Amino acid sequence: MKRVDYLLLIGVITISIFGLIMIYSASYVWADYKFNDAFKFVKNQGLFFIIGLIFMYIISKIDYKIYKKYSNTLLIICLSLLILVLIPGIGTVRNGSRSWFGIGSFGIQPSEFAKLGLIIFTSKYLEKNERIIKDVKKGVLPILGLTLLIFGFIMLQPDFGTGMILVVSIVGLLFVGGVDFKFFLKIGVVGLVGIVGLIIAAPYRLKRILSFLNPWEDPLGSGFQIIQSLYAIGPGGLFGYGFLNSRQKHFYLPEPQTDFIFSIISEEFGFVGILIVSLLFIFIITRGFMISRNCKDLFSKYLSFGITFQISFQALLNLMVVVGLIPVTGVTLPFLSYGGSSLLITLCGIGIILNISRDT
Amino acid sequence: MFFKKIHTRIKIILVVIILLFILVIGKVFYIQVFQYRKLNKYASSLWSRNLPIEANRGKIYDRNGVVLADNLTTVSLVFIPNQIKNKEETAKKISEILNVSYEDMYKHVSKKTSIERVHPEGRRLSYDVADKIAELKIDGVYLVKESKRYYPFNTSLSHVLGFVGIDNQGLSGLELMYDDYLTGSYGAIKYFSDAKGNRLELTEKYEKPQDGVNINLTINNDLQLVLERELDNAVLKYNPDQALGIAMNPKTGEILAMSSRPNFSPSQYQNYTVEEINRNLPIWATYEPGSTFKIITLAASLEEKTVDLENDTFYDGGSIQVENARIKCWKKGGHGAETFLQVVENSCNPGFVVLGQRLGKEKLFEYIRNFGFGEKTGVDLNGEANGILFKLDNVGPVELATTAFGQGVSVTPIQQITAVSAAINGGYLLKPYIVKSLNEPETNTVIKENKKTIVRKVLSEETSASVRSTLESVVTNGTGRPAFIDGYRVGGKTGTAQKVKDGKYMVGNYIVSFIGFLPANDPEVVVYIAIDNAKGITQYGGTVAAPIARTVLNEAINILDIKKPVGASEKNYNYNELKYVDVPNVVGMNVNDAMSLLKQFKVEYSGTGEYVEYQSPSGGERIYEGQTIKLLLNDRGNGN
Questions:
Q1: Do B17 and A271 touch (CB under 8 A)?
Q2: Active-site residues of B: which are they?
Q3: Cα–Cα distances in angstroms (integers) from residue B105 to residues A329, B99, B617, in the given order
Q4: CATH homologous superfamily for B50-217?
Q5: Mean pLDDT, consecutive 10-residue segments, chain A of 360 residues?
Q6: Across the interface, do A230 and B39 touch by the CB < 8 Å criterion?
Q7: Cβ-contact A299, A265 below 8 angstroms
Q8: Are strands B141-150 and B67-79 parallel, antiparallel or unpaired?
Q9: Residues 96-155 of A with CB under 8 A from B
Q10: What is the predicted ipTM?
Q11: Which CATH class is domain B580-634?
């Protein structure tokens, strides 16, 4: 066996450790207030990080071809979990969504598993149906239908952000897998017509959707989070207030260690910090895509691309929300945001890519 | 070939992803550079909390630096509810110390606000109460400095100074007029706070409060206190409806003293009626001036040379016929044959009617207007009245006649003293003022200064000089004799005006007044006193108001350090009046020689010997005839 891609490994470990440090900085105020333990969140995340590293190491040793073999089983497990989580008593509600299996203070989101499971399944599907993929009816619609079904389950929780990541990452896979441009144009048109229809039916929706453009119109409602985020980013300047010196984390920005951790990074490390984090992401994404490029078989090519693309889309979705480019969707920032199962699954995905990199 | 297509599409996606990252970085750059100011401002105001610190209200001083309105420092209780951890215990302890109900205090402690001022039970606490609260050392419980207005001379100058409310806001008088200057601006301790109101361990900023601007008045507090005392005495003696007095420097228009009765205590303003508080009579009251107004007729006649006071004569038979009206003199039977100087000295009404007739209505009213009647003097105080004059078209012979001796016009005290000042200061009508300067509190730099303002020239220097000497002879020879001060030259004029009610003159109800100045050759102070409806005395200006004015003028000599003039006019004494004489210096003389010089006095000895060692009062002083002089004798022929 060849060696894994160390550059990707180093990049991932660097950004994850930085994430851990930032989770501490962002969360200690809340943690101390809520749990009387400033290290509460960072301890949790640290534990998941270590477990994730172990998983990543083990997975990087497991031949990726095994997923192709068990892709159906994995998908069925994921689907079952998604259904199970909806049942009150089994799934628990956090932040208004029944998305969690709670074990003590730890929580696991089955939708995170579904994201990875569906990419594995789709990669295999694309490899198997290489010849009919240009046929929309026979090739595209079945897999798209499956995707929308899972999207539907996730929307029942509801968790729009995760659902969207899931759908877009499959669409991205289909695009790379050779589906016609025209098809995506059609999807785009259908989507646009749908959105216009919804707006005509209820014009207030447009206002709500566009509220991110001027959050000060409703500073205590829809604009609240984005305003608090801007208050963190704006005054930071070139170098920021310095590590631990964020002000917005003092109860102004709700749960600063999760979705809006990027704002706290900006507040404490300024523009320079933002640049470094972005470059780290671009580096990891580029490594992932290069590994995919170098793959000799389609399944591993699709799989490594799919995992990387999913991470990059989720990262961009989060960043664009935080800086006020798109409406708030409630998506975490991979590697950096607090969230054990999310980090665990991301690291597992990286483990798969690392294993694939041995083969290139 | 298929791989190539996949790789192209991966590249496209990578490019799109990188472009989106650049977009995100660009947006951050935009936020940090172009929106920095706005966001930083908003965010700072979000993070920082102010603990306000009250500024000291500007003080009000008299012309010599005596504080007339001062501040006492007190402390008040302020809560920052979010910083108070144990609300029940805090409320319990503080309610016990302040002796108020627990429920009320709990409401303050748990109020959803960033800063809660405990009003009114926590305002202006005494030091021992404040100490007890400070000893509790509870987070979120603050004692802030507050100042309370204090008027050291209580009721003195109350109408001019005004008063302040509980929050030190000016509510009347100068306190109201200059409130913006006096207030200053709040300072603050700025600290950073989290969203729950807890203090963050970040640098605090202290913003110094800007103390209010100080006001220096033209008032001379010593003279003011004399005026207050004399009005108090007058109230005790005559129980008048109202009383008022003004002292002014006729050369500059500076008001040296101003007061009226009824007055009030600024620190207990709640106990008085609105009328008592708001009516600053010296500028608010309007009434018929009576004979003091004759000064204007006199000045106009002298300026227009329509009379030769020494040589023109007039026969006062007790009344004068003007058209269908018969105007009586105040003296029954009249003054008989007199020169016009005697007309003035006797304040003879028919004589003044003639003076008015000689001037004609146009001229007389032109002078009245030029002297500032019928319009506000512009004194820098609130609530000045206009006064009322006849419209020239409505002035017939009768109106002309009565106006000439001060009936049928309505004027304010400040108009009268300002007009008389013009008549005696060389002919300049001045704008009276009471605020000398506004001074910056720390450096005492002058921000705004009032100076002598000449409104217009009314008389020539010569005319003004003859007005002065004529009015001096009113005091030495005429109706103003009760105002005579021995050794000084005093000029003045009495006034007795009937009050009008419902268009009719009231019977036995007069405003008696006196306006006097000193030294008569070069006046440094002019005093106007008016007593409304004095009881238990014949109501004449000479009997009631002149003695009060005399006391004020007499005290003004020392207070204003007015030099004794050479050649003071000798008073013409009535047979029953005691004379003032100079005491000869007899120190060192033989006893017998001394006795012959001291014939007019009673002499008491002490010691033994032939020679006078010491005498009291000493030579050069003026005392009444027949007063006692004490001599200390010894054997040697030398003094001391």
A1: no
A2: 291
A3: 45, 10, 71
A4: Penicillin-binding protein 2a (Domain 2) (3.90.1310.10)
A5: 87 95 90 84 92 95 92 93 88 78 75 93 91 81 91 87 91 88 84 80 69 73 80 83 83 83 92 94 96 92 95 95 85 91 92 90
A6: yes
A7: no
A8: antiparallel
A9: 130
A10: 0.94
A11: alpha beta
